Amino acid sequence: MGQRTGTFMFAADLTGRINGASFHWRLPPDIVHAGELFSAFAKALWLPRDFQSGWEGLFACLCDFGWMTDRKIVLVHERLPKLSDVELKAYLATLRDAVRWWDDDDPHQLEVVFPESERERVNRLLGVTPRP
């Protein structure tokens, strides 16, 4: 299946990641601006109308899935968005912090999946040192 490194899951094959047991969303691969990213999240995850576009607003929504009936929410990335490195780092840090926010006693879980081919770049952008 996939291997978890720290906060995220990395998988060589993402075709089997979607099943009927959870809410799965594949991030559109052609996103090039943060505004497009926020709009895609707002539509796909049915974010509240008062969602404030921005990293803090996205983080707040990823830490409160009260409107979602599915317990597990899985965000699947077939590739990283084509954002600038600064925006991509902010996006990855937002996802990392949101995943860490949830614990096993919460009513929801958030899982973020990337292709194995993006592991090195994700780790570099987040300043993660690979383990030997």
Strand content: 15-25%
Q: What average pLDDT do the residues reach?
A: 84
Helix content: 25-40%
SSE order, as H and E? Answer: EEEHHEHEH
Which fold name corresponds to the CATH topology? Barnase, Chain D
Unreliable parts: 1-5
Distance between the termini: 22 Å
Give the overall silhouette.
globular
Architecture (CATH level 2) name: 2-Layer Sandwich
Which radius of gyration do the C-alpha atoms yield?
A: 14 Å
| Most strands sheet | 5 strands, mixed
**Total individual domains:** 1
Structural class: alpha/beta
Q: Give the class-level CATH name.
A: Alpha Beta
Characteristics:
132 residues; alpha/beta; Barnase, Chain D; five-stranded mixed β-sheet; 4 helices; disordered N terminus; Barstar-like_sf; Barstar; Barstar (barnase inhibitor) domain-containing protein
